[in-house]
């Protein structure tokens, strides 16, 4: 692999204009396709095979007239203190408000709360449902403006009016202040890590180009593939984070090669052949983990995984081709000014990179003689002196942070999780106040009586049974389908949709109606948004351990091939578990317990979104392997050239410690930048991923890994002979380059002359 990528790096360096033109063309095409594509619609989560999904499918078949794709809005009216909404003046204001909407553009129907009984028992709150002919994303600005004007008209009459429903839903748009702050932090870290504005700008530019292409493709495919805004934002988040990191790793290696005397083209080839090999492996692990989300069986999760995987694949391709092409444009200007000035000074091994790598004794000598310069070297030597203490402190610390995970509760956010500053949240609160906390999450009971003798009798028996279940506030009269073989009825819980009591109620109803099924022969299914959320959350909980097992197994297998060691993969997998567990602990503490919630702008605590644990496991698995590969590659490189285990650890930190730390800070800042978005899904994802990267990079990889390697010594790199014979050699350290591709080798190219040191050709 190293030799193949080496040649790709040199080819891209020489053909820089062609490579740059191709990527620029891809960007233009992706953005043009996105601009011409229609907007996608936000879809409800579904879980094929669950009882609630089967019921939804049955309703689509038996009640096609109720399967409207149009958006809905709820205008919720509250009378002034001491008054009733049914008073003559207030009633007239409500009816005038609804009259201004009835018959309006894209309005299908409005309900009169005084005729349909949509008034609270105390008469202070009423609501009207407005149904539209189009989905939320297709509602025009004038239609939404008319809704807001109607609400303001009632407010002018003295009523409190809030608007709920899907009509005001909009796709979350990236590009806010917090995301820009994250990019700005990444830029500063790049400058500090690389010591060159050119190098920092190169890494940032290539990452942004890859992200722009990925975002354009997701937007263009939103309608045909049913991709939501969450898919696009995940692609943006992951593409930006890994894109910057991958460019940073290759640029850092290019800088090292140039500083050792290699010509820019040779340095580009070696950077792509060595660091690029690690990038390919790291990207492949993220890609596989994200694509593997499809096995869970939730279409939305599958789409999120595919979108993120596509963005990561693009980031890898950009890093392997566009980054070395830009090396060809900028040459040694990628290096810090001080290094460029010192380039002509004589030094050991200058101009012949292969010499030091072909001389294990010399390499051992250089490592042993290396002074304790740099924080990475000093930290590595500190860990080597106190490995047991470092391991105990780091392991117990992560274990303590992970303890809240034992209280993890899963759910799906609704309007109750939105900010109290939004009208949707205030409408939710008013409906809860007037009609009970369960009103916002009604349950739909579907009676399939196609094999029953009497549909009406079966439905009435279900009504009687459900009314007798403890926790049910009310049950509506059954409604029969046109074919008279199916009935539906609505049951309103006494408790809020995301409460544990409502979850127990769903199971209690399903258990209670089983006797009716035996008596009547009808099939009875409980569904509704609340029931669907409960079913999805339980499915996620059931799938968590199997998915984690698959991911851990994959990690061990891949690292076994890459590092040709048995204990290194096991250690990496256990460290991954620690970082993921600690990240889950942070999610529980913040989103369930409310710790630091005000600081992060989270106003409502509740269950952690049910998709998050599996999604975070998939993403963090790949990112954790990134740092493992980049850090241990240099350690193994030194070890195979004869360095002692301790010397190899110091060498790995000396070469990669600062770069890995910079990459982690960049990724944390990018993920944290999305915490400021209003979507609970994106907020949870941002906090979880930022915490996971923080723990994995700075505690697991920087502390636990060197401590364990120090304690294991030579045993860390032990591999049974039988495995040594059967495992493929992927050569991620680039050993083949020192044997097959001498430093002085040039690849003939009649169109490009060798670049003089310190100069570049644009």
Automatic annotation (TrEMBL):
Membrane topology, from the record: Multi-pass membrane protein
Protein name as annotated: MMPL family transporter
TM segment ranges: 180-200, 207-225, 231-250, 271-298, 310-331, 388-408, 544-563, 575-596, 608-627, 659-677, 689-712
Coiled-coil regions listed in the entry: none
Keyword presence, Cytoplasm: no
Annotated source species: Streptomyces yatensis
Domain annotation SSD: ranges: 203-329, 546-711
Entries under Gene3D superfamilies matching the protein: Multidrug efflux transporter AcrB transmembrane domain (1.20.1640.10)
Subcellular location: Cell membrane
Region of interest (Disordered), ranges: 98-119
Keywords tagged on the record: Cell membrane, Membrane, Transmembrane, Transmembrane helix
Family: Belongs to the resistance-nodulation-cell division (RND) (TC 2.A.6) family. MmpL subfamily.
InterPro entries: MMPL_dom (IPR004869), Mycobact_MmpL (IPR050545), SSD (IPR000731)
């Amino acid at each position: 692999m190293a030799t193949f990528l080496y040649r790709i790096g040199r080819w891209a360096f020489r053909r820089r204009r062609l490579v740059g033109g191709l990527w620029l063309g891809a960007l233009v095409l992706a953005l043009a396709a996105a601009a011409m594509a229609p907007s996608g619609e936000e879809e409800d989560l579904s879980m094929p095979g669950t009882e609630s999904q089967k019921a939804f499918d049955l309703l689509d078949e038996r009640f096609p007239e109720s399967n409207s794709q149009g958006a809905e809005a709820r205008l919720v009216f509250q009378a002034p203190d001491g008054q009733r909404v049914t008073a003559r003046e207030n009633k007239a204001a409500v009816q005038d408000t609804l009259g201004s909407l009835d018959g309006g553009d894209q309005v299908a129907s409005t309900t009169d709360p005084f005729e349909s009984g949509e008034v609270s028992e105390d008469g202070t709150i009423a609501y009207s449902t407005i149904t539209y002919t189009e989905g939320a994303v297709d509602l025009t600005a004038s239609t939404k403006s008319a809704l807001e004007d109607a609400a303001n008209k009632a407010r002018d009459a003295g009523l409190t009016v809030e608007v709920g429903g899907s009509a005001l839903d909009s796709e979350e748009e990236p590009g806010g202040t917090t995301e820009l702050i994250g990019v700005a932090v990444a830029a500063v870290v790049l400058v500090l890590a690389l010591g060159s504005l050119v190098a920092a700008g190169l890494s940032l530019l290539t990452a942004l180009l890859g992200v722009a292409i990925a975002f354009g493709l997701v937007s263009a495919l939103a309608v045909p593939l049913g991709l939501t805004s969450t898919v696009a934002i995940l692609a943006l988040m992951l593409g930006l984070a890994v894109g910057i990191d991958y460019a940073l790793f290759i640029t850092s290696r290019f800088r090292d090669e140039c500083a050792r005397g290699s010509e820019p083209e040779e340095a580009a080839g070696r950077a792509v052949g060595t660091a690029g090999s690690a990038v390919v492996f790291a990207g492949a692990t993220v890609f596989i983990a994200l694509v593997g989300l499809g096995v869970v069986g939730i279409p939305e999760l599958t789409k999120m995984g595919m979108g993120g995987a596509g963005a990561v694949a693009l980031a890898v391709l950009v890093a392997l081709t566009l980054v070395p092409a830009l090396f060809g444009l900028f040459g040694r200007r990628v290096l810090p000014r001080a290094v460029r000035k010192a380039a002509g000074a004589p030094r050991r091994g200058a101009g012949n990179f292969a010499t030091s790598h072909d001389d294990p004794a010399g390499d051992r000598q250089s490592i042993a003689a290396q002074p304790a310069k740099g924080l990475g070297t000093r930290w590595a030597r500190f860990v080597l002196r106190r490995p047991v203490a470092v391991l105990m402190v780091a392991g117990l610390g992560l274990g303590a942070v992970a303890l809240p995970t034992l209280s993890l509760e899963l759910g799906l956010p609704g309007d109750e999780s939105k900010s109290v500053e939004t009208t949707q949240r205030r409408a939710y609160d008013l409906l809860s106040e007037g009609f009970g906390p369960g009103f916002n999450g009604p349950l739909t009971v579907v009676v399939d009586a196609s094999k029953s003798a009497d549909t009406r009798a079966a439905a009435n028996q279900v009504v009687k049974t459900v009314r007798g279940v403890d926790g049910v506030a009310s049950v509506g009269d059954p409604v029969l389908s046109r074919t008279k073989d199916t009935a539906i009825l609505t049951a309103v819980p006494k408790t809020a949709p995301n409460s544990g009591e409502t979850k127990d109620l769903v199971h209690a109803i399903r258990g209670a109606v089983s006797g009716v099924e035996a008596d009547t022969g009808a099939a009875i299914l409980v569904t509704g948004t609340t029931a669907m959320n409960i079913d999805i959350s339980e499915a996620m909980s059931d799938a968590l351990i199997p998915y984690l097992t698959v991911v851990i197994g994959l990690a061990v297998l891949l690292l076994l091939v890459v590092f040709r060691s048995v204990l290194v993969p096991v250690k990496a997998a256990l460290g991954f578990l620690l970082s993921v567990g600690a990240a889950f602990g942070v999610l529980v503490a913040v989103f369930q317990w409310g710790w630091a919630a005000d600081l992060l702008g989270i106003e409502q605590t509740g269950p952690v979104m049910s998709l998050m644990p599996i999604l975070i496991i998939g993403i963090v698995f790949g990112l954790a392997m990134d740092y493992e590969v980049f850090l241990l590659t240099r350690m193994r490189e030194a070890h195979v050239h004869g360095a002692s285990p301790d010397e190899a650890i110091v060498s790995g930190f000396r070469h990669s410690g600062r770069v890995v730390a910079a990459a982690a800070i960049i990724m944390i800042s990018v993920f944290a930048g999305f915490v400021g978005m209003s979507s609970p899904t994106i907020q949870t994802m941002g906090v979880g991923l930022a915490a996971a990267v923080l723990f994995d990079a700075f505690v697991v990889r920087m502390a636990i890994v060197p401590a364990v390697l120090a304690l294991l010594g030579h045993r860390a790199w032990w591999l049974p002979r039988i495995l040594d014979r059967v495992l493929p050699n992927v050569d991620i350290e680039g050993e083949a380059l020192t044997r097959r591709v001498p430093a002085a080798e040039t690849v003939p190219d009649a169109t490009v002359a060798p670049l003089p040191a310190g100069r570049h050709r644009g």
